[in-house]
Amino acid sequence: MPMPRFFAAACFCAALLAPSAAGVEGKWTPQQVLELDPAWLRQLGLQLPPERLWDPRRGAGLLSAAVNIGGCSAGFVSETGLILTNHHCLFSVLQEHSTPQRDLMTHGFLARSPEEELPGRTTRVTVPRRFTDVTKAVLEAVPAGATDLQRYEAIERRQKELVAECERQPGTRCRVAVFDGGVQYVLIESFELSDVRLVYAPPRAIGEFGGEIDNWMWPRHTGDFALARAYKDGKPYRPEFWLPISRDGVRPGDFVMVLGYPGRTVRSLTAAEMALQRDGFFALRARIYGEWIQLLEQATKGSRDGEIAVASTLKSLHNVVKNAQGQMAGLARGRILEKQAEQEKEVEAWAAQRPEWRPAIEARRELDRRAGERRRTMLRDFLFQSIPNGPIALRHATQLVRLAAERARPDMEREPDYMERELPRLRARLERDQKSFYRPADEALMRSWLRHALALPEGARIRAVDAAFRNAPLEQAVAQLYAGTKVTALEERMKMFGETVEQLRARRDPLLDFAFALEEELRAFDRAQKEHEGAASRLRPAWRRAVMAHAGRPMAPDANGTLRVSFAHVKGYSPREAVEYLPQTTLAGMLEKHTGEEPFALPKSLLEAAARVDPAQVPLNFLADADTTGGNSGSPTVNGRGELVGLNFDRVWENVANDFGYNPAIARNVNVDIRFFLWLLEHVDHADGLLKELGIRR
């Protein structure tokens, strides 16, 4: 398969970097790896031929052992379909099967036979297979003279057509990935496995040791790993490639690669757009989601059923809030916006002297103007965007109303999330969410969402909220809403899943009625978002190409949830003056932190096993200078021979704003050492069967 144009160009920037550079910026695609200078890769520490990593003709290679699992990354580690990922990536499966009588979240889980493995109802694994540049086909679908909304719709329609054609192959899952807002479009073909079962997870006291106190921090002592198994046709899936486990581990200075699916970075935004991200996204996330954390904790206090129900949601919100706080702190500390603005001035001055690049100046200015306009409604927009993360009842009601309307349309004219290919996932989620529903907590979130909506300024108000709640005591109104709705009842909700608009309206359900009233404004919001995305797909490529031309070398595209590899070395860092952090921690440090009280209370079984060894000789976590972001959770970290040495699970606090720009001095990702995982299996859990499957024992 020929190399996509942008990928072929972007890769050569790596060859300009010296092997001794402080860090290697870039999340490289499988295709890019093949274009990198093999001699440079060998100098970095790669001992495999690059073509062993990826063969585009076959759509396979060692990189295909890295898979996507529900928004996290993971890696096959056996020929019998075992998948290793982070504990927090499979936490929802633990929560799904936990009860007050069998609390798997607290005590962990080990299946000693295949019959004991626990299915994850909504867990899916996608295995990469092929990447095809479809930029020309996508852009040719845009008619001449199209408005920005028409441009978006034409691009979306062509993407749907490409995906539909691709998915004619049984078991195939496809998507069109957009690079840097429209510089390139790539059709990604993957093989999907929908039968995924939990095999092993350590107790929560190990899997998230240190809790929110240690989250995003170093030094770290967390066993953030768990095992699942993928099945195909009722039998363990047998991957062509899996990652052999290294028993030698890593030392400072060792070369490593992080393989996975980084979610989203925003380095291609302008300074004005970055400022909008800070103020209209991260600041609001920190404030409103932080409030929701407190409400969930208060509403479930004293109820073990309630605590289990909200555990997965609460864990996610904690992580999101601390990330948002770190993003804002990092932006200020690194003066990232100021530096971005200075760079833009340099590019603009350069482009002004070259007629062929002058349109790029206007493109940037229009992007900035649009960012300014969006500030006026950023709180309202955030409230709309937060519905999928907020009250479960509101999420379900709006989804059911939208689904009924979309079902009346031809499949290719529907919103992507409501096409036939997505309905099994949506149905499974509507069913799975019942395990996470606890009415007092959900009512508390609904009251919070409505209070923020009722406080919106004139010109940004939500009419449906005002009509239903502005003149009523909020607590009483919300209680009546929940008392009168059937949306929160699983059996009734699943009936609603197949009903028409007329049937839903005929129910006279108060929550559905509110969702219908809200639908017109949600549709208007969606149209505005599409118009903005259409404009960005027209403007951003023009500006980005000027930025690349000014730099004199291509620049790696932003992360977008596609398979990437980052090259790195095990390395410590200095977080501030006169402080130096070493790159590795051990069981000894974990024992030092143990207080017997959460979140530093280790289980008795680990303490007993630790008493029989020298804890300073049991590696636990390590740092590397890999370029990672959200979505890299669970990414396999491998050595130069392609052997698994750890799992990525975090970044350090100083590096959270890495999404906006890479700083080699503080760009550090946190990995759990594979040797700690093996030590637990052998000495704490006595999982001899798993150790044999993993090739550690005969």
In short:
This protein has 698 residues and is an alpha+beta fold.
Structure description:
This protein has 698 residues and is α+β, with helices and mostly antiparallel strands. The protein folds into 2 domains: 5-124 and 194-258 and 560-693, Beta Barrel (Thrombin, subunit H), CATH 2.40.10.120; 271-544, no CATH class. 45% of the residues lie in helices and 14% in strands. The chain has 28 helices and 18 strands. Strands 1, 2, 3, 4, 5, 6, 7, 8, 9, 10 and 11 form an 11-stranded antiparallel β-sheet that branches. Strands 13-12-16-17-18-15-14 form a 7-stranded antiparallel β-sheet. Strand 7 and strand 8 (184-193) form a beta hairpin. Helix 15 packs antiparallel against helix 24, helix 17 (392-407) packs across helix 24 (510-551) and helix 20 runs antiparallel to helix 24. The longest helix has 42 residues, at 510-551. The model is unreliable at 1-21 (pLDDT under 50).
